[in-house]
Amino acid sequence: xxxxxxxxxxxxxxxxxxxxxxxxxxxxxxxxxxxxxxxxxxxxxxxxxxxxxxxxxxxxxxxxxxxxxxxxxxxxxxxxxxxxxxxxxxxxxxxxxxxxxxxxxxxxxxxxxxxxxxxxxxxxxxxxxxxxxxxxxxxxxxxxxxxxxxxxxxxxxxxxxxxxxxxxxxxxxxxxxxxxxxxxxxxxxxxxxxxxxxxxxxxxxxxxxxxxxxxxxxxxxxxxxxxxxxxxxxxxxxxxxxxxxxxxxxxxxxxxxxx
Length: 259
Hints:
The chain folds into 2 domains: about 50-150; about 155-245, Tetratricopeptide repeat domain (Serine Threonine Protein Phosphatase 5, Tetratricopeptide repeat, Alpha Horseshoe), CATH 1.25.40. A two-stranded parallel sheet has the order 1-2. It is mainly α. Mean pLDDT is about 80; it is low at about 250-259. The protein has helices at about 10-15, 15-75, 100-115, 120-135, 140-150, 155-170, 175-190, 195-210, 215-225, 235-245; strands at about 75-80, 95.
C-alpha cells in the first residue's frame, strides 16, 4: 500500500499548537511597539503607586512621632527649676509653668490635626488639642475640636472620651441640660466602652444640679443593680445614693397665676 506524503502546508495545518505559536509571534511582531509602551505605562503606574504608598506610610510614621511628642508635652512636669529647654532634664519634659506646657503641646498637636485630616492619628491629636485648649482657657476652640472628635466614628473610644469631657465642660458652664443629654446617651449606648457606673455618678450630679432628685436616685439605683460590671464603683454608687437621699427635696417654683 502506498503512503500519502503531506506537504509542509498540510503538516503545519495539522499542528494547532504550532499554528497558535506562529500567530502569537506575528501578533507581537506587528504590535510590539504598542505593547512595549503599554508595558512601560503599567510599570510606571505600579512603581508610582508604590511610591505614593511609601510616601503616605512615611507621613503617617512622622505624624505618629509628632503625636507622641505632643502627648509627652501635655503630660510634662512643671517645676520652677526647669530650664528654657524642656528636654534638658531627661526623658520627661519639664516646664516652668502650666501655660508654657500646654502651649507647647498645642503647637505640636495642631500640626498633626491639621495635616492628617480625619485619620486615627489626627483624631487622637485633636482630642488632646481640645484638652490643651481647655487648660489654656480657649473654651470655644476646645469645644469645636472635641465635638469634631465626638462625632467621628473611626476611633469610638476616643470619641466617647471627648463626649465625657464635653459633658464636664457644659456642666461647668451651667449648661446642665446639654450635659445630661450627653451622659444619658452614653449610658444607653451599647457601644460605649467607658465605665457606665462612673457616667451614672456624673449624670446623677448633673440631675441634682437641676433639682431632679427622683431621677438622680433612679439613675444610681439602676447603676448599682447592674452586677459585677459595676463592682469597682459599687461603694461610690452606694455612698452617693445615700447622700442624695438625705438631701432635702427641691422646692417647686410657684406657678404663675392664670390671666
